[in-house]
Every structure is written in structure tokens, then in C-alpha cells.
Amino acid sequence: MTDISIGIIRQKPTLVSTFELLVKPITPVTAPGTEAVARTVVQGYFLTIANTSNSDVKLTLQFTATTPALNIADTVTITDVQGTNDFSDLTPVPGDPSRFTFSLGIRANDTALLTLLPDVSKIEIVKAAKLEIRGYVEILVNSPSAATPVNLLLTPEHRGTFLPQNLSSRNLDLDQLAYSIPTSTGGSLFTLSGPVAKMSKELKIEVKEFEKIQKEKDFEKVQVEKLPEIDQLANPIPVNAGNDLQRLIGLMAQRLDQIEQQMGNTQNGKSFIQAQERPTVGQQVVNQPRN
After folding, report:
1. Where do the segments described as Disordered lie (predicted)?
2. Is 61 exposed, middle or buried (CB count within 10 Å of its CB: 0-12, 13-18, 19+)?
3. Where do the structural domains in the chain lie, given as residue ranges?
4. Of 49, 119, 130, 247, which alpha carbon lies 20 to 30 A from 163's?
């Protein structure tokens, strides 16, 4: 074979952390006069990624949110790779309404910041103060050039701002919060492998193995097709490849019927051994000299 194509096998994504987006009171209001305690918080997800390898990498992040669901129209994605904020949206995964992806590239020995935020530019979201989206984040390397594992430092955080009761006040009381999120590994270092490239030599071996298995199956098929020719029992019948198995079963049943008939004759007092087949007994045994 002369095929020199390369097969690419994508790796499974690695779990990073949970995430939670909020435009909602920090606590439910249960009694009149406690509204000041339950201030509305706007919270987003921040993920700092450091590429500590000596090669550029392309990454894909996958966000999964089922209950509550994630609506792209209520969020905004911001990336800072080269010192500027680039606004964009997540990409829905076809056929799976609960999953969304985002791809970015990071140069060797460089860092990037990815932020997923509630879209507070829409005043109706802020006034309603009912937005809550939570789920989990996964990551994978999709650079075909990443032949060796890539070391990444991942630092997920939640950052937020507490909004005052009166947004039109001259002296806005804006408090902030920030806290780190535990990762799936318990640390920041993630060693990820890129897609596995199978060269033509490996593909040839797999093809040869397949051809070997196929030949063995074909040989077994031929052996089964030739079974009626090996022994036609008492009644030879021409081979018909389409009904070999049924014919073989029929011949076996026919033979069994013949045996049953012979056994039946014996049970009814009829001799199973013909007269000409019986050995001569009696006189020869009497005249035989004794030891």
C-alpha cells in the first residue's frame, strides 16, 4: 500500500473546575427591611492559562451547563491574549444544547486570560436580578504539532461586584469579591497531550491485521459451505450454496430416522443383524481343544 495519509485521534477533554455566573441577590430576602443585606452580585468566571512549554498551543475549552441552562444571549466571552480585551461568544456544540466551546491560541511561554461574564450591558438582566448559570469547564489541546505533552498552569477564579440598591446614586457603593476555585487535580499544573497522529506505517499494520482477520473469516465461511460435500450420509445431493445448512440438517434428520427405524425393528423382535452377517457359532466352539 502507498497511502501516506496521517490519521488524527482527538484526546478526551480534561476536567478543570466548576463555574457559576450570577446577577442575583447574594441571599434570599425573607423579612421586610433586610433588602440592604441581600445586595445583588454580578459574578463571572475567570481562567488564567499559562503555557509553560516551548511551543505554541491551540486550546479548546468546553462549558457544560444543564440546570440552569446557559443562554448565549445572556453572556459575553472576553479573552486577553496580547494585552487587549477581545469580545466574542461561545460556540454551541451541534446536537447538544447543554455544551458550548471556545478556542484560543497561546504562544510558547506566554499567558492568556479567558473570562465568561453575564452580559450586564443589557439593563433588563440587571433589573431582573434572576440570572444564575452554573456548570463545569473542560479543556483539551487540539494542536496537531503538540507531539509531546504540554504543561499548562490553570488558575480558575470567581470575581464579582456587589451592586448598590440605587444605581442612580451619585456615590455608588461598589464592593468586590474574588476567590479561587478548586481544580479537578487539586493543583494548577495540568499536563495535557495533543491529538495522536498515526503515520502511514501504523495504518498499514492495522490494515494488514484487518485483511488477515477478513481472510480467516472467509476461510471459515468456505469450510462451512463445503460441509455437505464431506459426507452426504446415505443420500448424496448436489451442493447448493444458498441452502447448505438446511440441507445438512435435513440429512442428519433423515439419518436419525433410519437409525430409529432399525432400533425399532430390534425392539419389536426383529433382528438388527442380517443372517449372512452372523458369525458361525456352536460346533467350532465345542470342538475347540481345551487348555
Report:
1. 265-291
2. buried
3. 8-195, 200-266
4. 49
